[in-house]
Design brief:
- The protein has 273 residues and is α/β, with parallel strands linked by helices.
- It has 2 domains: 215 residues, NAD(P)-binding Rossmann-like Domain (Rossmann fold); 38 residues, no CATH class.
- It has 8 helices and 7 strands; from the N terminus they run βαβαβαβαβαβαααβ.
- The chain has a 7-stranded parallel β-sheet, with helices on both faces.
- Helix 1 packs across helix 8 and helix 4 runs parallel beside helix 5.
- The N and C termini lie far apart (37 Å).
- The mean pLDDT is 89.
């Protein structure tokens, strides 16, 4: 059983190879945790933007490994596959001997008018963004119950607090993520497991640059420039959110001793309740 301090506490982060997941891994390492990142090793089907791969996993581990020891490792993971989820938990236990925090961060986005959106597109969104939370939480809960300082953090979105045109599948999946958070927070409280959702605002990951802004400019560099300009105009604090912002928030939600069942917006004032 873990000792209740951050030092030596073990975190499993899904979708941890890049973007927000990578930012979370860096933040947890800086806060004294040991980290297992899980992500795809190959893209088995066409998608609207590039997903993570084995190179991303190995690069993140190499770049985030501290000089003090092997505090981070990686495991292949497809959150839509129950067996893969179980193997990721087993790999974490084999490597680090315990599991204290599960971060359900893996997610995908797609968009389009409801009368043009296909059933396979819809199913893919919900398979990853909703069923993935269920399968990973189910696989991890027994190990989490062995911890004296257990937590689950679920990456939702401000899209789970307010709907947007042409985003019914994505918004629906993120509303579901917040509902699952609230249900698990009550269900797992008797086991001492805190469950919270993190709701990112606008982070310049592949989801935005390669998909949501694909029509803004012909090149990634052009889209990145346009992205920054739009964020200055749209967000009250005048800047986009970063993967580092999300990492800091995830560490807070995973370590706050009496916080459970919240959906914390980290959005520069773009979404307020």
């Amino acid at each position: 059983m873990s000792n209740g301090s951050n030092d030596g506490r073990v975190v499993l982060i899904t979708g941890g190879a890049r973007g927000i997941g990578r930012g979370m891994a860096a933040a947890f390492l800086a806060a004294g945790h040991r980290v297992m990142i899980g992500d795809l090793t190959d893209q088995k089907e066409d998608w609207t933007y590039s997903l993570a791969n084995a190179d991303d996993l190995s690069t993140t581990v190499t770049e985030l490994t501290s000089g003090n020891g092997p505090d981070i490792a990686a495991t292949p993971l497809d959150v839509t596959d129950a067996a893969s989820c179980k193997r990721a938990v087993e790999a974490t236990l084999e490597r680090f001997g315990q599991l204290d925090v599960l971060v359900n961060n893996a997610g995908v986005v797609d968009s389009g008018p409801v009368d043009e959106f296909t059933e396979p597109q819809w199913d893919r969104i919900f398979d990853v963004n909703v069923k993935g939370i269920f399968l990973m939480s189910q696989a991890a809960v027994a190990a989490l119950r062995e911890s004296s300082d257990a937590a689950i953090v679920i990456t939702a979105s401000i899209a789970g607090k307010r709907g947007s045109p042409n985003m019914s599948a994505y918004c629906g999946s993120k509303f579901a993520a917040i509902g699952i958070t609230q249900s698990l927070a009550q269900e797992l409280a008797p086991s001492g497991i805190r469950v919270n959702a993190l709701c990112p605002g606008v982070v310049g990951t592949a989801m935005w640059i390669e998909h949501l802004m694909v029509e803004s400019a012909p090149t990634a560099a052009g889209r990145s420039t346009e992205f920054e300009t739009r964020m200055e105009e749209m967000i009250p604090l005048g800047r986009a959110q970063t993967a580092q912002d999300m990492g800091e928030a995830a560490v807070y939600l995973a370590t706050a001793k009496n916080v459970s069942g919240v959906a914390l917006a980290v959005a520069g004032g773009l979404e307020m309740h």
